[in-house]
Amino acid sequence: MTENLRPSGAYTTDQDPTPYGYGTAYDGAPGGYPPPPPYAPTNRHRAKRPVALLAAVAIAAGVIGGGTATLVGQLNGGGPGATGSGGAVNGTTVSQSSKGTVSGVAEAVSPAIVEIGAASSAGNSTGSGVVITEDGEIVTNNHVISGAQQIQVTLSTGKTYTADVVGTDPDKDLALIKLRGASGLKTATLGDSSQVKVGDQVVAIGSPEGLTGTVTSGIVSALDRDVTVAKDDSGSSGQGQGQGQDRQGGGQQWPFEFGGQQFNGDTGEETTTYKALQTDASLNPGNSGGALINMDGEIIGINSAMYAPSSSAAGSGSAAGSVGLGFAIPVDTLKADLDTLRAGDGS
Fold first, then answer.
1. Strands 214-230 and 256-258
2. Where does residue 102 fall: left (phi above 0), alpha (psi -120 to 50 degrees), or beta otherwise?
3. Mind giving me the DSSP string for 154-195?
C-alpha cells in the first residue's frame, strides 16, 4: 500500500585491571635474582595495559571500515545475516566516515533492497522487499504478494530469482518470501523503532513506479498513526494488490483509511489497522515493502502506505504522487512477527 497509502552499539569491555603476577622466585639458581618486593605495581603501570588494548581495538575497527559498531555487531550477532533468538537480524552497516549522510546510507543499504514482481489472475504488480538473511529471506508487505501465482525478485545487481511465499500475516500487512537457490546475499540490519523520535532523519529505498533502487529522504513526521488497510486483494473491491496501476488493465491503487476517511479506493470489508510511523520521505506506488532507514543504516520500518489526495484521483487512471504523507510498519512489529512468518502460521 505504499501503494497508495501506499502504506543499535557501544559495548563495554570489562578489562580486568588486576596486573599480571610476577611469577616465581629464582630460588637456587646460580646468580639468581632476589624475589620481587611484596607490594603491587604502581597505578601508573596498572592503567596502561587496558588503555593500550582499547586503543588497539578502536584502531583495528576503524581500519576494517565499519567502525566500532560493526565490530560489536559481529561479536554479538555472529556476522552478517545472522539471526538472534529475538528475531534481530545483523547486516550491512554504514561506515564510520559516511554515518549521518543520505549517500552513506544509500550505499550501505541499497544492496539489501529488492524489487518484487507479483503476477496473479488480476494482472501484474510491483513492490519492494528487504533481504534479511544471506540465503534469501525477504520481508515485504502482505498486500504486495497477496494472491500472487508467481513471484519474481530482482536484486540491486539486476540478477533475478523466483521466490516462494514462506508465511504471511494479513493482520500486520507483513509477508516473508524466500528466494530459490540464493546464497551470499547482502542483508539489512533491523533496528529499534521504539527509539525513533519525531524529527529523526530517515531514508526510504524501494522501487516506485518500477524504478528500482530509488532513494528518497526526509524525517519522521509523526508516530503511532492508525492506518487501516485491506487484508488482501479480495477485500479491496477487486483493485488488486501492490501497485494497482502497474497491473494489466488496472487503474486504481491499493486502498487504505486514515483519519476516518478512505483513500485510493474502497478498502472493502476485510481490513486491519496498525500503528504506523509517518514520514515525509517521498513514497510512491511500488515503495510498498521497501525500507525506511535511520541514519545509522538500520531498518526502522517497512514502507506500507501513502496518502493520495482523493480516491477519485486514484480512480481516474493516473496515479497520484506523494504529497509528503507516507506510512511505515514499525520494525519492532516485524521482529516480533518473524517466528510466526517463518513457521507459516499466519498463511
1. antiparallel
2. alpha
3. E-TTS-EEEEEEEEEETTTTEEEEEETT--S---PEE--GGG
Of the pLDDT bands very low, low, confident and very high (cuts 50, 70, 90), residue 9 is very low
For 60, 137, 296, the CA distances from 104, given in Å and listed in that order, are 21, 24, 9
Among 95, 125, 143, 233, the one annotated catalytic: 143
Confirm whether 304 is a catalytic residue: no
Q: What is the model's pLDDT at position 258?
A: 59
188 in Cβ contact with 289 (< 8 Å): no
pLDDT 10s digits, 239-279: 333 333 333 333 345 566 656 666 665 666 778 899 999 99
Residue 1, helix vs strand vs coil: coil
> Distance between CA atoms of 176 and 146, rounded to whole angstroms?
11
- The DSSP H or E segment spanning 229 is strand 214-230
The stretch 275-288 carries a mean pLDDT of 94
Catalytic residue selected from 288, 304, 311, 322: 288
Q: State the DSSP code for 2.
A: B
Is 296 considered catalytic here? Answer: no
Distance CA 97, CA 347 (A): 43
CA-wise closest residue to 127 among 106, 157, 104, 147: 147
Q: Model confidence over 171-193: pLDDT tens digits?
A: 999 999 999 999 999 999 999 99
Query: What is the average pLDDT value for the chain, to the nearest integer?
Result: 73
